[in-house]
Amino acid sequence: MRPIVTAAAIAQVDTRAQEEAKIPALLLMESAGLQAWQHLKARLTRQEELLLFLVGAGNNGGDALVVSRYAYNEGYTNQKIYLLDGTVSPSSLVQRRIIEGYGIEVINDTGLHEALSIADWVIDGIAGTGLKGALRGTARAVVEQIEKSSAHVFSIDIPSGLGDHVAVDAPSIHATLTVTMGAYKSAMFHPKTRSRCGTIVVVNPSFPPSMIDRLPTVAHIDEQRAALAPLKVDDYKNSRGHVAVFGGSPPYSGALRLSGRAAFASRAGLVTLACDEEILGVVASEAPSVMVRPSTTVDPTAYDVLLAGPGWGRGRAALLKTLLASKKPMVIDADGITALAEVVTTGGLSEHGSLIITPHLGELKRLASSLGVEDETTALGFFSMIKEIASRLDALLVVKSSLVHIVLPNRTVLVVEGCNPSLGVAGSGDVLSGIIAALWATSGDAVVAARCGVQIHQEAGRRAHAAVGYYDSEHLAEYVGRTVQEAER
Hints:
Elements: E1 2-5, H1 7-19, H2 25-41, E2 51-55, H3 59-73, E3 79-83, H4 90-102, H5 109-118, E4 121-125, H6 137-146, E5 152-156, E6 177-181, E7 184-185, E8 199-203, H7 209-213, E9 219-221, E10 242-246, H8 254-265, E11 270-275, H9 280-286, E12 291-294, E13 305-308, H10 317-325, E14 330-333, H11 335-346, E15 355-358, H12 361-371, H13 379-393, E16 396-400, E17 404-407, E18 413-416, H14 428-443, H15 446-468, H16 473-478, H17 480-487
Parallel strand pairs: 1-7, 2-3, 2-4, 4-5, 5-6, 6-8, 9-18, 10-11, 10-13, 11-12, 13-14, 14-15, 15-16
Antiparallel strand pairs: 1-9, 16-17, 17-18
Helix pairs in contact: 2-3, 3-4, 8-14, 10-11, 11-12, 12-13, 14-15, 15-17
């Protein structure tokens, strides 16, 4: 797992590298710029491409000028440089003087508009990770112009406009490629900011590795492949776990069937669907492998894991309270999360068994409101918010978006880089909750169920997209079984 840290933590490493390891600031800048250039060069297709460098006054701008120099030295001389005003840092001032000696064209505002219209690549060195608030003035105007350009954008350290304490809806660069220094930054991994970074590459600009290794982390990138213990040769339906799915309503009878189907594909031996009496016939006729019961007659204590919410509709708070009182392991998804918010708001959450809660961003906001937790607007605030919600609910949290944020019982946050928009289809979350519930029933481990469930869901989505293009969730469920089988180690 690779760490995600704050910008402030990396800034401290930069200072310590200079003060304790006696590494000159210019050497750090030179190394950062050289490594950034090497990754940019790998993306260039011809030396005639126009490279437009946007250079802020800080060290981020100095890094960009180092890139300019290395590019020029290797024959990429078709360059233009736009210098932003501000208090120029000492190291950046040295780089500006060097570039003057190279004679590379420096353009003004009028030249910038023309250059943006024909540039092949924009090298973004406007603002670094230390940004405290939204971009203003010239920097903001330049970013807004870049967003109208068709050029590829290469951001150094972080797309300008993003920052730990900057509102995630503030203007920022949308990069094709970002080379970041030292470690991943938390500002890159908010659900609304990750896509602005494009491909992210981490390089070390000569920081002593021990300093990076000891940094406090905000989260970790979870790249671990799903790994499940194979079924024993004598396993059968009663030893493979029994999942009860409480869900469905007249408008949404398909949701719990998707969850049930995914649970079977994830090795559950038995699945019971507990639903409203008026949809019993529909559900039973289309799900011959499952047992279908009226939810009012089902004893929740008879099952290994409960799943509450898929297609439930409104008005389920009383039933959810009954399920919680059983103290059985339970996955709460979809309308179950709405019911949970109502339970919390009206009387508070009483003692319960182990919980995995799987909200999308709208449901997360609903939970935050019910708990009185501030809906954070910054990247760093988002990480604090999901930890607080998980702590207050005493639950493992799986937050679904283009990324998946998993908050473990010890409040460690794992980030799974899905970045697969084909999964953004109705019923996809029902499939995920069914996978997690089944893996929990067979493994008895909530962390294994959540982590492996998310990875299997992502991989099934990739396979479905590769095989058929865009798909509905019934097609998605078809790819779960083989993905689970291949996760057995």
